[in-house]
Design goal:
Spore Coat Polysaccharide Biosynthesis Protein SpsA, Chain A, 2 domains, seven-stranded mixed beta sheet, 17 helices
Length: about 475
Amino acid sequence: MRYLAYFDALAAKRIALRKRNAYYWNDITRYCNYFSHDDYNVLEIGCGTGELIHEIKGRNKTGIDFSAAMIEQAKAQFDDVSFYQMPAEQITLNQTYDLVIVSNLIGFVDDVQKVFEQLRLVCHANTKIIITYYNYFWEPFIKFAEVIGLKTNTPNQNWLSQADIKNLLSLAGFDTYRRVNSMLLPFNVPLISWTLNRFLVRLPFFKLFALNMYSFATLKPEAKANNEQYSVSIVIPARNEAGNIENAITRLPKFGKHQEIIFIEGNSTDNTWQVIQTIAQKYAATHTIKIGQQTGRGKNDAVKKGFAMATGDILMILDADLTVPPEDLPKFYYAIANGHGDFINGSRLVYQMDKEAMRFLNLLGNKFFSLAFSWLLEQPFKDTLCGTKVIFRHDYYRLVSNQAYFGNFDPFGDFDLIFGAYKLNLRIVEIPIRYRERTYGSTNISRFKHGIILLRMCFFAARKIKFV
């Protein structure tokens, strides 16, 4: 509130200033828009005169600001947003939102932790929060820009590091699951700005000098020992896996409100399809089992067919080779059911694996893709190609509707799911598992042919994720 007079006075010239700094503000808007979607309810805290929230995708958009003069201007300009005058420390809205944006506000509030605590009032369990703020490294340069007139003079403000923001969010009950730095040059110099701000700033070392910091957060989950409220669909793609089908049933623990097991047979040259039919009949009295055959080829096609047949709240993939033990699936269930993540990925590269579980070249490939994905996704990511992945069915349908954004040339589906989860702004969590040797059959993966395809997808995704 100590800055109220300043912002009321600034309201009269806000539009002109916004136009003068359009390149800077448009970059923030574009990046936040990347993680919003047409079906979202979106709230901006500290919306000013409303330009950002107006440009953000969403079906129901709301902006609040503590300056009455700012809100009056926003209402006069935009009729597609509901604007309210209220301080961020005293939010009185009576609904929750899918996405909450706090853009360049925290420097101007007296108690940042109190603002973050107020955010809980407008969050449901899956709400995602994006907080943008200046990198404190730029403080002297911004002060200098104000002195020479390149930037509007502002009162003294808080200068917080990303570690400070993460700590304050944690104290307010939020988990910070991603941190991103952006923009090296805050005004437009043809070609130079594009090169610096789309490419160079995404590289190690250079990102330390970025002007803008983005922190992504969501509510911490409440601890629940035995959360059995969700039903589960377990999709088991099977090609030449006749000797593993019955074990997939008998070794599967009971968890969740209800389980359905979906076998999808894919162009086998052994008797896998016949075994699947026999096993489905044998265990029909004790298990809900669905079966199907692919019309296309590849694991990606099989998983899509299985998920299309699924009715469970939570979707799981279990490879029929059982190198990821079925006994480990409850870990995945409770991680997503208890809110520890929105997309759960298995990691075979934490524990020691069985001696013959993964060939040396495959291991090297996985290590390479681990490094690539840790960089692409702005978080540690060890194992991109573990077959076991878990997602809520409603999130999967949203993911499928956005799948054209990344293309359709992933034969396994792993990258489709990981990239799609990132684009949906889902919280991605890995669970370490013990990777076991096969007891039947041989791998369906071609190390070199499929490795080249996956490498192409990394380059493609870099353009679609990293250099946006």
